[in-house]
Amino acid sequence: MKHWVWLTGEVVTGLLLGAALSVPTALASSSPNGEAIYQKACAACHGPRGRGNPRHAVGFETPLPDFSDCDFASREPNADWVAVAHEGGPVRAFSPMMPAFGEALSVAELRAAMSHIRTFCADKSWPRGEFNLPRAQVTTKAFPEDEVVWETRIPDGETDAVFNDLIYEQRFGARNQFEIVVPIGWRENTHPMADDQWRSGLGDIKLGLKRVLYDNMERGAIISGIAEVSLPTGDDADGFGADTAIFEGSLAYGQILPANSFFQGQIGVDVPREGDKANEEAYLRLAAGRSFFFDRWGRPWTPMLELVASRENAPSADTEWDAVPQLQIMLSKRQHVRLNIGWRMALTNDDIRDDQFLVYLLWDWFDGSLAEGW
């Protein structure tokens, strides 16, 4: 939370003090000078290099952000910073003490100032927050994040079942992420002598590492390598595990497109430790979507469509294709809590494969607690 408190309370406070001194009309040119705008409108509080002036110099107790801290400064896209500075704190559920400065500085001037602020992070190995594209239901995104996700899958079959994954992701360093996935499921007990109608179980716990291999803001592209292993912790007799470790390797790709659109892709392979208990499998996942804003500075609604293909390395195996239409809804003003609802439709072998209802709830815990930002 602290990076947002710093950002919302003090970025605009610096703009207020600077605006009180008046921004020269020369800055309102067709090509704003970001450094000049920053020095005139922001440096009074944030200092000439973005590290923040001392509290006794600025006259308030709230800590100032350090824009030279790449771990903090690289995470958010410019658009979020401009929204907070332009509309004031309440637009992202921050304190109303932070006023709106849409009349003091234009959007073009604020964007120029943000571009200059980006130069304070000297380590360019940190991928920009613009690459944190909306999370699809199946395709893994390339950007490393700090998130907790609860996923639920409900097959549309004759036997009732509910499968859940609790996912914890934590970023470390500029380009890395650690992940742990804990599956929990319930199945209808169809055995006529069973005492309970439902049986539950823990699935195969998965551990994963992600590393950004390439990112380029000018091209709008990011590529990451992902390595994962599923441990045989689930009960295979009840359908909650594979009874063998499975190693997975994949490449994830993200592409920023015009008009708030994007494309994501993932290609990978699963290799079981014991081939007699599970088959090798290759997969391809593609996702495309676009974010819509009913209010320029409000919450986005993001419809997406995924195409998912997989094929086992087994005799007479078919390539199975699925389509996954879905909608991601931003729940919190701070944009750190999101809901996605989708439907996975079998496009091939649909006589033996069930469709699935999919839903996830995502919490970006780096941006604040679940109780904040509403």
Automatic annotation (TrEMBL):
<dbReference type="GO" id="GO:0009055">
    <property type="term" value="F:electron transfer activity"/>
</dbReference>
<feature type="domain" description="Cytochrome c">
    <location>
        <begin position="29"/>
        <end position="121"/>
    </location>
</feature>
<keyword id="KW-0408">Iron</keyword>
<dbReference type="GO" id="GO:0020037">
    <property type="term" value="F:heme binding"/>
</dbReference>
<dbReference type="InterPro" id="IPR036909">
    <property type="entry name" value="Cyt_c-like_dom_sf"/>
</dbReference>
<protein>
    <submittedName>
        <fullName>Cytochrome c, class I</fullName>
    </submittedName>
</protein>
<dbReference type="InterPro" id="IPR009056">
    <property type="entry name" value="Cyt_c-like_dom"/>
</dbReference>
<keyword id="KW-0349">Heme</keyword>
<dbReference type="Pfam" id="PF13442">
    <property type="entry name" value="Cytochrome_CBB3"/>
</dbReference>
<keyword id="KW-0479">Metal-binding</keyword>
<dbReference type="GO" id="GO:0046872">
    <property type="term" value="F:metal ion binding"/>
</dbReference>
